[in-house]
């Protein structure tokens, strides 16, 4: 039996093992996401009149799952975690916003790796590729830009087509000591401020957990 034949026969086995590992990893992180949701969602301090969590840790779980187990596990964890959030979130639409805000940090790096692999032979798997600081910084910066754009669209749809007009009329930045910033200026500023703040943690903490803590204590 030639070496090439062995590689062809081993590939389906390796592929099945990889998928099994991804599903198992997703299941573990979905359970962790549920625990985090139960313990934090109802008690997180929120910005008055906006209902926005000042800091929401559940996305850290979703992105860490993606970085450790891959894009399939990340999507499964994010999707299931979003559904779980509906059982605890007091705003009603928060989980949808959380999904839209987090998904760029999975989709953009995964897509970038696919494009990079098509340009030249994929010498590194996605996890190894993303563990490189310049690659991680560039892809996550692009994800942050996509997040801001997507959240601008989501807020426009909600304030124009979902919320009563008085919601927009009452929007301001009094929480930040800027009561004079109102209406659309307040909405745009809030999107930039809160999403940049949360993105800092969404990018930094999963990176440290996935590429510094996990490799130190276990091999996945």
CATH structural architecture:
Orthogonal Bundle
Q: Which residues sit in consecutive blocks of at least 5 with pLDDT less than 50?
A: 4-8
CATH topology (fold) name: Arp2/3 complex 21 kDa subunit ARPC3
Mean pLDDT: 90
Radius of gyration: 20 Å
CATH class: Mainly Alpha
User: Shape, please?
Assistant: globular
- SSE series: HHHHHHHHEEH
Structural class label: mainly alpha
Report the total helices. Answer: 9
Largest sheet: number of strands, sense, barrel closure:
2 strands, antiparallel
Distance between the termini: 31 Å
Number of strands: 2
Per DSSP, what share of the residues sits in E-state strands of 2 or more residues? under 5%
Q: What's the domain count?
A: 1
3D structure, described in words:
The protein has 220 residues and is mainly α. It has a single domain, classed as Arp2/3 complex 21 kDa subunit ARPC3, CATH 1.10.1760. The longest helix is centred in the N-terminal third of the chain and has 38 residues, at 3-40. 31% of the residues are buried. Mean pLDDT is 90; it is low at 4-8. Helix content is 75%, strand content 3%. It has nine helices and two strands, in the order ααααααααββα. A two-stranded antiparallel ribbon has the order 1-2.
In brief, what are we looking at here?
By secondary structure, this protein is mainly α. It has helices at residues 3-40, 58-69, 71-85, 94-102, 104-119, 126-130, 133-162, 165-169, 183-217, and strands spanning 172-173, 178-182. The chain has nine helices and two strands.
Throw out a few tags for this protein.
Arp2/3 complex 21 kDa subunit ARPC3; mainly alpha; 220 residues; single chain
């Amino acid at each position: 039996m030639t070496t090439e034949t062995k590689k062809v026969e081993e590939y389906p086995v390796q592929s099945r093992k990889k998928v099994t590992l991804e599903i198992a990893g997703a299941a573990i992180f979905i359970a962790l996401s549920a625990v985090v949701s139960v313990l934090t969602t109802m008690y997180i301090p929120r910005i008055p009149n906006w209902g926005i969590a000042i800091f929401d840790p559940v996305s850290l779980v979703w992105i860490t799952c993606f970085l450790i187990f891959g894009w399939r596990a990340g999507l499964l964890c994010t999707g299931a975690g979003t559904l779980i959030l509906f059982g605890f979130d007091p705003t009603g639409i928060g989980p949808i916003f959380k999904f839209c805000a987090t998904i760029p940090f999975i989709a953009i790096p995964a897509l970038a790796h696919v494009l990079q692999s098509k340009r030249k032979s994929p010498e590194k798997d996605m996890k190894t590729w993303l563990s490189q600081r310049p690659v991680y910084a560039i892809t996550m910066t692009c994800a942050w830009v996509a997040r801001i754009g997507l959240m601008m669209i989501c807020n426009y749809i909600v304030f124009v087509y979902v919320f009563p007009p008085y919601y927009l009329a009452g929007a301001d930045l009094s929480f930040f000591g800027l009561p004079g910033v109102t209406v659309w200026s307040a909405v745009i500023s809030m999107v930039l401020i809160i999403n940049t703040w949360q993105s800092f943690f969404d990018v930094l903490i999963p990176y440290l957990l996935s590429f510094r803590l996990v490799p130190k204590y276990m091999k996945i």
